[in-house]
């Protein structure tokens, strides 16, 4: 009990209560203050209960608290078995009743907040059946139940999203990336619009493009519908094939079997099905019902803590021990006459178990046979789709196997030939690569020699000259030009080649240097980038490890500091308590009556007597009020009736005065008319 009170005081001194209690001040709370404290804790769980209990009757307070505790599934401890005693203790603010409730509430505040929040929407409002006969009330009740189910689903989705582990940083990165993509798409659309605006008849072209897009979407939807219809047709063909196969098997069974065998099979099936219906399925159904009943019973009970589980485990161990003792006693008292019956019972139980096992094996074999038949039908349908013919059987299958073997040998021979050709092709390809490399090396050597001799590009020029000469020969053959024209053309070409070569030579040299520098800088950049990435990764890992370590040390420091302050506070409280105990003992032992009157015991005794006298006076006053309540209420009713009667007379008097005044006015008006 002291640990329980200490836990309550610690929780009340923390957020959001901040009561600044110690064990003495908490234990010295009066009943009304204790009830108000319980009400404040309930108000923290459910804000609707944050009220002042002095402004309502004790019965209303007890009813409100009991209803909320029922919603929160609070179960009174074992020493308060009578619910009326628990209710009476809750009304009077009894400490043995209030302390366990506070301990239970403060242990699981967050869980109870969630349960109270859900109870606002999930506690079903019971409507009497006679009211549900009205269609309007029935429709509203149905909508109410649908909204309740929708709230359940939304709450589950919300909890799943909370526990899904989605970080805000990732979501923000995704949002920023999507915004960038959106900006890029907007810019791209604007560029395309600007490009399209320059085209003639661009509105008509846009309309045609839109129609084309719509037609493509329609084509895709039609293709999807066609695919769905194909799948439906495929499933329908499979069902038809299964039905035809079953019909064929039934025809074969009827044609190849005799009436006696058919009757025997039917009797076996009937016996097996009757066993399933009368023995196995009812037993399984009963076991499932019992399991569901126990699960519902477990769900109906409040949430259990470690202490409740330990109590249940001890009870289970005790019951198991009692069962073992009773079994041993029964075995000791067992008479030898009943040994034969026990043997028969064991044999019967063994046979029943074997029967159940065989029934399960038969059921599993039937399920396996049905699945195998389904697979066979699927394979048959696939074979029909691929080959377009039925499955081979008997001699046809043997012929097909021999043909397949001969084709297999022919295939292996051809595969060997293909492998030889592939190897030869690889050799030739490698030879070609070597020749190309050799040719490139010779070209490079030739180019280097030309550079050394100062005639770079000579080979290229020679090739060009050869090509030009070839062209010249063709031109001579085709057009019959003269040799002088060709020589002039060659001179012009040589001059042009030399000019181009002279103009491109410094540019090529500069380009080579720049390419070499670019390669060196690229390589250096890659190396630096790799070094930077590795260093950044190492520093990031070290930083995260140091942050975790610092966080752990800070938490440990805060915990140790709180423990230090808590121990100091407890030490001061104990010193104060010890000082008060010494003073109390000194005053109580003192022979001076003035000193003894200062003792706390004497003060509490006087306070108890004063409160008892005050309670007696209040009970007497309550008795007088109850006795005079009926006559006073009658007198109030009579005065109210008298007031209504006088009000009615006043109204009648006012009406009569108004009528007489109107009559006088009418009479004076008539006299004036007569005078005129």
Number of helical elements:
19
Class computed from helices, strands and strand pairing: mainly alpha
> What's the pLDDT, averaged over the residues?
78
Strand segment count: 0
What sort of overall outline do the alpha carbons produce when their principal axes are compared? extended
Radius of gyration: 52 Å
CATH class category name of one domain: Mainly Alpha
- Examine the coordinates and then state which fold CATH places here, giving the name of the CATH topology of one domain: Actin-binding Protein, T-fimbrin, domain 1
Distance N terminus to C terminus?
A: 108 Å
Order of helices and strands: HHHHHHHHHHHHHHHHHHH
What is the annotated CATH architecture of one domain?
Orthogonal Bundle
**SS strand fraction:** under 5%
Largest sheet: none
Which residues sit in consecutive blocks of at least 5 with pLDDT less than 50?
none
Summarize the amount of helix as a percent range: over 70%
Any idea what the CATH superfamily of one domain is called? Intraflagellar transport protein 81, N-terminal domain
